[in-house]
Amino acid sequence: MKKIMFNDRYGLTQAVIEGRKTMTRRIEFNSDLQQMVTDSDSYYYDDGYLVFATQGVDIHHVKTRYKIGELIAIAESYFYVRNIVVGQEYDDRLCKAYRIEHTDDVVKLAGWSNKEFVRADLMPHRIRITGIKCERLQDISEEDCMKEGILGDVEYDKYEVYGLFGNSDDGFDTPREAFASLIDKVSGRGTWKRNPWVVAYEFELVK
Questions:
Q1: 154, β-bridge pairs
Q2: With 0-12 CB in 10 A as exposed, 13-18 as middle and 19+ as buried, what is 95?
Q3: Distances (CA, A) of 61 to 25, 31, 65, 127
Q4: How many Cβ atoms sit within 10 Å of the Cβ of residue 53?
Q5: How are the residues of the chain apportioned to helix, strand and coil, as percentages rounded to the nearest 5?
Q6: What is the DSSP letter of 75?
Q7: Of 2, 19, 143, 154, whose CA is between 20 and 30 Å from 71?
């Protein structure tokens, strides 16, 4: 089983677990592939691959990081899982998985504080990929912005990103404005303006 990481600083992991975030956009193409996608005039998804075509002729098969139907573990640090999600009994599971003799030693695991090093099979939450598409980052719809975890205030018609200050009116004016600010924080300043091709994954929470 693979794992997937979401940004904690801006509350995206929690948004997934709460069911508020059901899409994620990932930059999976290097500069050569970015140009190849630009030069293509159509594409389709085929069992783990995006197939790009020109004038009806398939030119490139690009493997996606995840497949439709695939079950994926949400990465969380062992410290968080132990203290917030599961409880003290999680120590025994870690000891068994890593063949550790004393429960006090689980804090020495690399994944205790860094979720990049956790094992997928030890994670308590899962998502299932339900859809995959390829598009320019700025082609995102307002509906998809909300699926990316943007918070909306219907009463005041403002949109927010957890942990991120908005404009001078205390909130972003549109979901796209909020998402543009979020993606620059998560993927690096200038990402929205650069407008790369991205792979957009839609998913459902299953555990």
A1: none
A2: middle
A3: 19, 16, 13, 25
A4: 14
A5: 35, 30, 35
A6: P
A7: 143
Q: With beta carbons less than 8 A apart as the criterion, state whether 62 and 197 touch.
A: no
Percent above pLDDT 70 for the chain: 93
What is each CA distance from 41 to 51, 55, 62, 191, in whole angstroms?
Answer: 11, 7, 15, 23
Looking at residue 62, its pLDDT comes to 95
% of the chain with per-residue pLDDT over 90 = 85
- Average pLDDT rounded to a whole number, residues 10-39: 94
Q: Is the pLDDT confidence value at 118 over 60?
A: yes
The tokens describing 42, both together, are 């159509």
The pLDDT value given to residue 164: 59
Nearest to 179 by CA among 155, 202, 168, 195: 195
- Cα dist from 140 to 89, 162, 167, whole Å: 43, 20, 21
Local structure of residue 111 (DSSP, 8 states): G
What pLDDT is recorded for position 155?
Answer: 56
Candidates 201, 152, 202, 205; CA nearest to 179 is 152
* CA 24 remoteness from chain centre: 4
pLDDT over 70 (residue 84)? yes
- Asked if residue 197 lies in contact with residue 29, where contact means CB atoms within 8 angstroms, the answer is yes
Q: Tokens for 152?
A: 């909306």
